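Researcher: For the annotation table, I need structure tokens for Carbonic anhydrase 2. Please keep the output clean. Sequence:
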Amino acid sequence: MNDFYKKILDNNKQWVETSLASDPNYFQDLAKGQTPPLLWIGCSDSRVPANEIVGAKPGEVFVHRNIANMVVHSDMNMLSVLDYAVNVLKVKHVLVCGHYGCGGVKAAMGNDSIGIIDNWIRHIKDVYRLHSSYLDSIEDETERFNTFVEISVKEQVFNLAKTSIVQSAWKNNQELTLHGWAYGLNSGFVTDLEVNISSNKDLDEVYQLKF
């Protein structure tokens, strides 16, 4: 058994001991069920831990992650998570969180082939194509990259709003608000991209405002 693998097993034991020391019923209570108020759709990047960023405990955030935090209408994994979160767990908030310095977004800005992920990145390239005139007008490469990260998050929120799952929830007057954030790896702070949508009326107004 290598040192790293042994270390993570030891870390688990230490975590259990620490949790039980603060609350002897910690795991018994956790096993009774979950009622998280938030679904987090984030990037798979290991530097973007959903619970830690918002200071949440286990049981408070339902999480879906993929490369570049994409909301793709043909992605049955994402749709299954969304359906369960909205219709079973009755979350009140769905948050799409991208991050500055995202490798998937960066790859979509170029033409290099990096493997099977090329197929996934096509979805991000489509976002760039939609906003190419504006993005290409930004001369500074870092600024263009950061702006693309933000625009991609906004488009994923709009994609989310158009799913039949979210549409049905709103039609049934279910309390459900969508949000978009960009996380700073070098600061720890998030930027609220001000795409907070809780109805089709909000969707129309926010889309006109942001684009």
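Researcher: And a one-line annotation?
Model: The radius of gyration is 19 Å.
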